[in-house]
Amino acid sequence: MSDNKKNAPYKIPIGPIHPALKEPILFTFKMNGEVIEEVDFSPGKVHRGIEWMGMRRNPVQIVHLTDRICGICGVTHTFAFSRAVEQVAGIRVPERAQYIRTIMAELERIQSHLLWAGVAAHELGFDTLFNLAWRVREESLDVIEYITGNRINYGIIQIGGVRRDIVKEQIPRIEEALSYYEGLVDKMLKLFLHDKTINMRCRGSGILTKKAALELCTVGPTARASGLKFDVRIDSPYGAYGDIDFDMVLPECYLSETNGDVYDRIVVRILEIPQSVSIIRQCLKNMPGEEGDILWEPKMPKLLSACKKAGGEAVGRVEAPRGECIHYVRMKKADAPYMWKVKASTYSNQLAWLEILKGEQIADIPIIVASIDPCMSCTDRVSVIRKNSSEIFTKEQLHRMSVEKTRGLN
């Protein structure tokens, strides 16, 4: 009888399509028994060439394309892209439109965090909580539909403002939704943070230290859960955030210490829901301007003409539900942008997987992977396919290619 027994360590591939993963990505784990010794991952499975398509359209058309980069945080991408184009073209957005953009960004944060909370509960095998989280998320989608006409791909942001106003007759319905979430906060905190199973599975699991979070350049709730005070809304205010009174949510707001584990990431996201409610309330209370004053230029030919005359480059930054999202736009006085690049927040956070998965148990892979709230549809910007071969680019090769690409822009 031949000895086919394999000795540790051995490799386990998970993905690119796997029930434990919500989007396509390939993980390769080096295991010793049940313990993860090393991990590697290969993204690029859902590249759709959106930037390529955008560079063949005018900025007004691209706005609707940015809405489709992600089915969860569409406003984030339209907001960031519009900010970049408006800087290049010297377009001044009406103050009222800035407030409406802020309201939409915070409603999106609420529905995104609740969607993540449901996914996290599911990954822990707690499907009753999954169903509850996704049921209460419906209210945020309902009110978004009430304001924009759409539950997904809202289509509300336009270059130079927004396409729909929020009038006083709509405020009672929005207030109703905000009160609904205020009444749920204590229940959500109790269910997610006081449950014995969640405590046992998440405390001390998937730890990302403050030092590692800083060195890996993590952003958003993933960084704040490790104690880093990074939030674009406060560090570089945009929209109406400069007029709003709020502070960053860190684990110390609820716990006595910061551990940077999965549990702390739950704390930050749950507590950011009432924070968003407070921001929306302040925006509604102090909404400036006259009703209807929501666009820099309502005449489309004039807006397109202003974009066509624009030359230069700019970066649009916003704080997405998952962290900082960046859109780079370069225009050369033409119909379409000369260059458009997107850096989604998961691009910054995904390297944390290498740190937080090492030394953990195989059964905890789903919840630890989900704990950074990854979105590969936002992130995948390129897909490399070679027939029957693989290639690894070194740091020097990537640097040389980057320099050559930059020189080619001039």
Automatic annotation (TrEMBL):
Q: What is the top-level taxon of the source organism? A: Archaea
Decide whether keyword rRNA processing is in the record: no
Q: Where does Mg(2+) bind?
A: 51, 342
The entry's Fe cation-binding residues are 73, 378
A GO molecular function assigned to this protein is: quinone binding
Q: Which cofactor does it need?
A: Fe cation; Ni(2+)
| One Pfam family here | NiFeSe_Hases
This one is known as NADH dehydrogenase subunit
